[in-house]
Amino acid sequence: MTMWIIILIVALIGIIAALWYIINRITKFRFIDYIEDRTIYKNKPRTTGKGADFGLPKKGEEKPKNKPKKSWLRRLIAFLIVLVVVIILILCFSVVEALVIVLHAAVIWLLCELIVLILRAFNIDIAHIKAYLAGILAVTGTVVYMIVAYILGSNVYITNYELETNKNVEPLRIVQIADSHLGVSINKDTLPKEVEKIKSLNPDIVLITGDYVDDDSYIDELEACTKELSTINCKYGVYYSFGNHDKGLTGKNRGYDTEKLVETLKSNNVKVLEDEIVNLDNEYLIIGRADASKKDRQPISQLVSTIDPNTFNSEYSIVMDHQPNDYDNEAKANVDLVLSGHTHGGQFLPINNIGVIIGANDYTYGYKKINNTDFIVTSGISSWAIRFKTGTKSEIVVIDVK
Q: Which of 4, 23, 297, 337 has its CA 20 to 30 A from that of 107?
């Protein structure tokens, strides 16, 4: 929770700064000069620095001393442009996604202006270009970047892992999904396609490692999507463990509580595990942990201690633990495999590893091995409130244990 509070505060400050910065930058476009010249200046000549690089003059020229201050009209036009664009983005996406795009636009714009300054530092004269080059590059770059981010976040890809064990067990194909946060990019209209994809992978077992729903995942979405999961027919069935969003902040606004969530899952043949263990054919142990947000969840050592030592040593143990932040204890417990989600693969570059940096997570994405324990963190089949991802992608994970 602390990490999310920090992220929200930083995001709020960043959004305010980004809006101010973008409005200020838009005043540098030449079409605003055109409007200003034909209103306030009424076509009278004026001395002003224009061009591609912050209004800087060509090399060898002195900067104009009588450059007029930015008029109220310039700022008003820039503000209205930003306002209209933000409204359009909200209508096309959502408030959160619109603000994410604004943040990216500001960062990309700043980088473009730095590039222009670097070019001038190396005596690459671009002042002859009669356009605000940094602004044009920033707008174009933001559009391209966010289109790619939308494709990576909204489409679901397959990621494969192969793991070897020296335990005498039959090969097992696991399909893992996490962080569907029903109602964002995965919903009752899009889940059927992904379920068919899961079926085509011929899994022996399907594991849902948390954040199946969210505070904005309403009852009709839950019922329709869970009914779709019931059509998955595999050897060991479908298992689910809780994530930090599943129980909701209150459980009231979305039309169901935790009890109703569990009832809906179980009635559709999804087995719910919360600090519980299931033995599959005396070969595999499925250990479903309560989410780390549950203060009284059992330590992994305590869970493992309930298993007969001979059984634990001979069978392959798979831990479902939504948040990847108990690696040391899980490795000490000598479990074979730990599957997590929660991080969304870091969601965006370059903040993708912030959870590890501040100590909230032990790992952000992919595969890691500690002692005899394999760890896999998925970026999730969707994500919370945002359909954009960079540096990662939405995925279904396939793990072949041999």
A: 4
User: pLDDT tens digits for 82-97?
Assistant: 999 999 999 999 999 9
- The answer to whether 318 touches 239, Cβ cutoff 8 Å, is no
For residues 101 and 105, give the distance between their C-alpha atoms in angstroms, rounded to a whole number. Answer: 6
Residues 267, 229: Cα–Cα separation, whole Å:
11
pLDDT one-digit tens code per residue, 171-187: 999 999 999 999 999 99
pLDDT tens digit sequence for 156-168: 999 999 999 999 9
CB of 297 within 8 A of CB of 291?
Answer: yes
DSSP, res 345: G
Task: Let me know: does 320 contact 207? Beta carbons within 8 Å.
Answer: yes
Phi, psi of 317 (to 5 degrees): -100, 130
Distance CA(203)–CA(286), nearest Å, equals: 15
- With a CB cutoff of 8 Å and minimum separation 6, the contacts of 363 are 324, 327, 340, 343, 356, 375, 377
Radius of gyration of the chain (CA): 27
